[in-house]
Structure formats: structure tokens, C-alpha cells
Amino acid sequence: MADKEVKSIDQATLEMIEKAHQDGCSTVFDRADNMKPCPIGAEGSCCKNCAMGPCRVPMAKNKEETAEDHKKRKGVCGATVETIAARNFARMVAAGTSAHGDHARRVVELFHAVAEGKAPGYQIKDEQKLLQLALELGVKIGDRSNQEIARDIAEILREDFGRQEGQLSFIKRAPLKRQEIWRQNGVTPRGIDREVVETMHRTHMGVDQDYQSLIKQATRTALADGWGGSMVGTELQDVMFGTPSPVLSQINLGVLKEEDVNIIIHGHEPALAEMLAVVSQDPSIIAYAKTKGAKGINLVGMCCTANEILMRHGIPTGGNFLQQELAIVTGAVEAMIVDVQCIMQGLTDVAQCYHTKLITTDERAHITGSTFIHFDDLNAIEISKNIIKTAIDNFPNRHKNIRIPQVKSDMVAGFSHETITYLLGGMFRASYRPLNDNIINGRIRGVAGVVGCNNARVTHDDLHVTLVKELIKNDVLVLQTGCSAMATAKAGLMVPEASKFAGEGLASVCETVGIPPVLHLGACVDNCRILTAATAMVKEGGLGDDLSDLPVAGCAPEWMSEKAVAIGHYFVASGVYTVFGVTWPTVGSKEVTDYLFKDIENSYGGMWDFEMDPYKMAQKMIAHIDKKRKALGIDKARERVLYDMAMRRDLEK
Q1: Rounded CA gap, 57 and 482, in Å?
Q2: Phi/psi of residue 211, each to 5°?
Q3: If DSSP codes are grouped into helix, strand and coil, which group holds residue 607?
Q4: What is d(CA 3, CA 534) in angstroms, rounded to the nearest whole number?
Q5: Strands 55-56 and 371-372
Q6: Residue 415 phi, psi dihedral angles, 5° rounding
């Protein structure tokens, strides 16, 4: 069994690891101890793309072997370590892009059904954003109904998936200089599906065998995620389910309730979660729960679905990725309902140790040993009622072995782009000007996006929390999404009182505006909100004319998912310095790694980096921010001068 003391910094997690041991139930932490990572695969030096392999071309393991000896190692087909590492990296990007793209496709399909009046229970909640999208996409408004406008928007965005030529609809949102950089490098994405398919083709045995060419296609594919699939998904979800605004809620396993039917919704697509949030409040459903001896129904989120319903409904969050099994270990969960992405197959084994039902709902994600209830957007209300009743019927089957950690933290979430502009400037002067001004005057040193997953190979939540505390202490405003956001929320960094951990300058701005120094922007698909915010900073003026000019940096300290690689690469391709922790998938090739960590900056203005120590991560990010401040000429305080009329006339000459 895993040594709980080194597995997490979160008290609720440690308590449930101990309980799992007592109950004889194996979790992800135990499996991580028993299954060591393959050192060759971890460095990207293994190719299994044809049946002549797998071929292994690992780095030198002894002093006698030189770099030249390593370069002589080739796969059976003659593939070099550079080709193998680049292929593996590109395939990770393609997989991550396909995950977000397929998510977005389902959102577009639902949006079109809502426009056609075929999806009872769903509606257009943000009319203003709908009309803004219509203007942006060239959809006629006039005296047309919202449904007619929505149908046209859905049809335009649906074309982005299979588009063969031209560019994605939201590419024009990027700063003009950035768009030109993409055109010059030949990486402007066409259709989302086209880029994924082409990447898979190029990485097939015997096709593209030049590492720079492979990385170029990976770049175009990643951009199809950040400025395509993810952005489409986020925008349409806001229109249908409501654009997030600040909401107070709670997080950690302590939000479970012993007297209630506890239902955990886990996954990534919000259509199911949205309807469960509504149906769980139905008086007849609550009355049914009481007939089974429960006091009520307690819906709790897990992983990125948690972020979706947290931001829009204030529904409490049970925890992040590595806590999904531990929620069941409490013995108090009647059902865990899942859709797609980041769902451990080990949940079935853990559920068998207790009374919990694992309910799968998506045709794309069956799990052996689970109960499958197909969720159909066109009959969402009735299916949601059936799912909740299944959970209620399981309440009397509870064992006596219930132990809910009394650990939870307050948090404020829901900082969408629209909310941030409103908080900074009000309804009539909404803008990023106050943010830009405070970066220019030095109160805020810069902005960091800290995102990504948890990884059982490092201490749960530790890298996230340590890094973020170090950044805000040095006056760096932090934007977060996904499981990373949950880690710092549990540590108490997402409430206004957390300004006490921030530097004097950042704290003064946060206290004035009334925001925490760490802002929760949503689920992992919502990383595009960070792109939107960065673009708004450029357009506001004073901080350069491209995303690469901004004093910003990105980081995924505990990443584990291929989606994280796609996200990181679309930030790099958009001009942002991006650091990953835990491991790096191309270290088996010095040439490919050097290209990603150094040379790629010459083409795109952004580059990758890798660092395992959170303090060193912070130092690297701050050093980059300071370099950008110096380039902008805002690294030193300037004396304020009151201009007289003569000085003003000189300015006009």
C-alpha cells in the first residue's frame, strides 16, 4: 500500500488513503507505487507505430556511450530518435486536440438542437453573448428570433470541424501580428478534424520523417484546439448555460453529507451536469429521496465537470483528479455519474468495496463493470430523473463504514473574460485598462496561467500550491483552470482574504477591486479564456502588439493528460513561455528537446521549458516576466510629470 504521508498535502486525501488501507481497497496511489513508469517510454524513445517494433532507442545509460553513439541507434525502419520523439509528441497533441474537439462537436450538436427546439430543458441563457457571436461571425440579426440566429451560428461553427481550406472562424480573434506569424510559418489551422487526421497520417510508419516538419504539423493541430475546439465549446456553453460570474462555494471531500443521497458527477461535458443540477432540485425528486430515509439530495462535482457546475450554479466540488476514487472510499456516495475524459477504470474496483454505483452515460466511454444509462440530449429531463432515482434507490444499501473527512474550504469561482472586464471597469467602462495600467506601473509584475492535472508520480497538489504561493508573493496575478484551480482552492487561495499571501502591489490591486490574487476561470477546455484575456490585454494597448510581448507565462506543474500537451503547445504557438513539471515526453532526443525549448521561440515567440522543482519553476516564470517587462521599458519606475500647455503642444508636433 502507498505511504500516505508522501502522497498528498491535502488532509482529506491523506485521511481517505488511510481509510482505503483499513478497508483493503486499492487506489491510484497504491497502483502508482506498484507500477513504475517505463523509462524509455517516458523520454519518448519508444516507437510502436508498426508491427516490426516496438523499437527502443533510449538515451545513453553509461559514461562510455557518447551522444554520437546514441544518434546511431535507429528503429528497424531506420527511424531516428528525433523522428520517434517528434512523432510521439505530435500524437499526444493530436489526441489532446481530438478530446477537446469531440467535446466541442457535442456542444455544437446540442446548440443546434436547442435552436431547432428539439432539446427540452435547455435554452439560450446569455442572449448578449449570442448576439455578440452573431456580429462576429457575420450572422444577420435584424428582427430574427434568438433561435434563428443560433441555428446560423451552429451551422457556421459546425463547418469548422470538417473545413478543408481557409481558416477556423475564431482565428481572427488573435492579434493581427499573431495571425501574420501563423501565416508566415504555415500553421494557420484549417478544419479541426483535418488537422488531427493529417497529424495521425504524418506519424504513420514511413510518412513524415523530419522532426521539425512533424512539430510544425503538431503546432497547427494544437492551434486547432486552442482557437478552435476549446474556444467553440466554451463560447457555446456560455450561451446555453450562462456566462460564469463570481460565486461563493466550497471544495473538498467534506462537502459530502452523511444524511443526504450523495451523487457525484464526474467528467468534462456540462450538458449532463447542467440537467442533473436542475432535476436534483425538483420537489418530487427530493420527496422521493425522503421516502428512502434520506434528508435530501446532495449533488457534488468532481474534476472538470465540477468546474462547470461550480461556476454556473455554485454547486460544491468534491475534489480533483486524484480524489475521484477517494470520494467513494468515504462510503457515503450512492452514485458516481461519469461521461468522458479523466475517468479512471479503477473506479469499478473501488466501487465494489462499497455500495456505490458507477453509472456511465456516454456511448464513447463504456467501462466494464459499470451501469450504463445512455444520456440523450433530446430527452435529457427524463433520463436525468432516472439517473437520480437510481442513486436514491441505492441509499438504503449503504454500509455502516462511512467516514467523511471534515475538511473543506471556501472558494470564489466564475471569473470569465466578461466578468473580469466588468469588475475592472464597470458596466459602461468595462475593459482591461486597469490591469494593463497596474502592470505598467509595477503593482502587478505580470500574469501567470497555472493549469493542468494531478499526477500520482508527485505529491498530490503540492507543486500547484507551492508554485502559486511563490508567484503571488512576487506580485504575479495567477489565472487557473481545471484540477490545478481545485488544488489552490483547497489551500485557501481563492478567496479575497488570500491577498495576505500576495506581494504588497498585487494585494493592493486585489483589495481595491475585491478579487482574490488567484482567479478560477473554469474547466480545462476553458483555457481558451486565458487566450481571450491575453488578447484583450494586447488590444487595450501599452503592453506591445502581440501575445509574445506580454509579461505573462504559463505552467502545468502536475500534468498527466495528452490534453495538457495540446493546451501547452497552443500556448507556445500563441507566443507564451510555458513550463511543465513531472516529466517531459521528448527528453530522449536532445535535438527535438532543444528545438522545443529554444529554437521554436524564433518562429512563434513562445517556447517550452521543463522543471520539477516548484520554486525553480516560479523563478523561471518570474525571470521571463521580468525579461518582457524590460523589453517593454516598464522594468523601472518612472517619475510622474504634470504636463503644462507648452509640453502638450510639443507632443502634437
Answers
A1: 35
A2: -65, -35
A3: coil
A4: 41
A5: unpaired
A6: -95, 80
Residue in the block written with cell 517587462: 629
Distance, in Å, from the CA atom of 283 to the CA atom of 300, rounded to the nearest integer, reads 18
Relative orientation angle of helices 462-473 and 482-490, to the nearest 10 degrees? 80
47 three-class SS? strand
Omega into 54 within 30° of 0, i.e. cis? yes
pLDDT band at 71 (very low <50, low <70, confident <90, very high): confident
Query: Each residue of 380-426: pLDDT tens digit?
Result: 999 999 999 999 999 999 988 999 999 999 999 999 988 888 888 76
The per-residue pLDDT for range 477-492, each reduced to its tens digit, is 999 999 999 999 999 9
What distance in Å separates the CA atoms of residue 111 and residue 137, rounded to the nearest whole number?
16
How far is 226 from 232, CA to CA, in rounded Å?
9
| Rounded CA separation 125/278 (Å) | 14
Element (H, E) at 522: strand 518-522
Q: Which amino acid is at 514?
A: G
Q: Write phi, then psi, for 413 (nearest 5 degrees).
A: -130, 180
Find the Cα–Cα–Cα–Cα dihedral 153, 525, 304, 101, rounded to 10°. Answer: 70
Give the side-chain half-sphere CA count within 13 A for 500. Answer: 4
Answer whether 524's CB lies under 8 Å from 550's CB: no
Calpha distance 276→384 (Å, rounded): 6
Task: Find out whether 282 and 385 touch, Cβ atoms under 8 Å.
Answer: yes
Q: What share of the chain is helix, strand, coil (3-state, %, to 5)?
A: 55, 10, 35
By the 8 A CB rule, do 305 and 273 touch?
A: yes
CA dist 38 and 58 (Å) reads 11
Q: Max Cα separation, the chain?
A: 84
User: Is residue 301 within 8 Å of 265, Cβ to Cβ?
Assistant: yes
Least Cα distance to 418 among 129, 53, 36 occurs for 129
Ordered domains of the chain (ranges, CATH): 4-72 (no CATH), 81-241 (1.20.1270.30), 247-397 (3.40.50.2030), 428-632 (3.40.50.2030)
Number of CB atoms found within 10 A of residue 427's CB: 7
Q: What is the DSSP string of 376-440?
A: -GGGHHHHHHHHHHHHHHTGGG--S--------EEEEE---HHHHHHHHHTTTS-SSHHHHHHHH
The values of phi and psi at residue 221, to 5°, are: -70, -40
Cell digits of residue 542: 501599452
Closest Cα partner for 534 from 466, 611, 628? 628
Q: Using a cut of 0.85, tell me whether the model's pTM lies above it.
A: yes
pLDDT computed for residue 396 by the predictor:
97
Q: Which residues of 81-92 are buried (b: 16+ CB within 10 A; e: fewer)?
A: bbbbbbbbbbbb
